[in-house]
Design goal:
Strand content: 5-15%
Number of domains: 2
CATH architecture of the largest domain: Up-down Bundle
Structural class: mainly alpha
CATH topology of the largest domain: Four Helix Bundle (Hemerythrin (Met), subunit A)
CATH superfamily of the largest domain: translation initiation factor eif-2b, domain 1
Order of helices and strands: EEEHHHHHHEEH
Helix content: 40-55%
Number of strands: 5
Radius of gyration: 21 Å
Strand order of the largest sheet: 1-2-3
Number of helices: 7
Distance between the termini: 59 Å
CATH class of the largest domain: Mainly Alpha
């Protein structure tokens, strides 16, 4: 399936369904999936057909919107209960995915506030989430573009030793936290690292 570069989205809503690229088939094949139920979206997240924090968040949001389309009754209380159950099923597909939980929580706030508006309000929120994510990605790309030489080879600025250039060139103000196997470090990082090192040393000493 051909997609113009300017219109490319890894996850999108089209004709009552979510269309997403199957990332398990990349880079050798470009296969697009059309998912019409929350169960199908949950399967795609669980099996990593959709990957990346932002894409997972958008997919989860669309899954919540699809849940609203499953319910034909006019009882708004039962509708919200149904959406909430489906939302938790989606959340459980990747419990540690921050963007997924964030997007689901945001969709549930809209669902509860606009129940009478039906699925249309949820679809509008899906579009808002997707547009915000695209804008953030484009801003990050703008920051990184000057550091990318012709040919797309990612390198650190001249004279800067970097073990992982793709990470090290990210502007510090775009990194709210650093995830490690011992926990999450937050700014100020020198103090956070010291506290974590002390905690790990105490734990190791207690184990001896």
């Amino acid at each position: 399936m051909a997609h113009a570069q300017e219109n490319f989205r890894a996850v999108a809503w089209r004709d009552g369904a979510v269309v997403l690229i199957d990332q398990t088939r990349l880079p050798h094949e470009e296969i697009w999936l059309t998912l019409r139920t929350p169960d199908e979206v949950a399967h795609a997240i669980r099996t990593m057909q959709v990957r990346g924090a932002s894409a997972i968040g958008v997919a989860g949001a669309v899954g919540v919107a699809l849940a609203a389309h499953e319910w034909d009754a006019h009882d708004t209380r039962m509708l919200i209960m149904h959406i909430a159950v489906r939302a938790e099923e989606l959340r459980a597909t990747r419990p540690t995915a921050v963007n997924l939980s964030w997007a689901i929580d945001r969709m549930m706030r809209v669902a509860r506030a606009t129940a009478l508006a039906g699925p249309a309000a949820l679809l509008a929120e899906v579009q808002a989430i997707a547009d915000e994510d695209r804008a953030q990605s484009e801003r990050m790309a703008t920051y990184g573009a000057p550091l990318m030489p012709v040919g797309g080879v990612c390198t650190a600025p001249e004279g800067i030793p970097a073990a992982n250039p793709a990470f090290d060139v990210t502007p510090a103000d775009l990194i709210p936290a650093i995830i490690t196997d011992a926990g999450i470090l937050r700014s100020p990082y020198r103090e956070a690292i010291r506290v974590m090192a002390d905690r790990e040393a105490t734990t190791a000493h207690a184990a001896d």
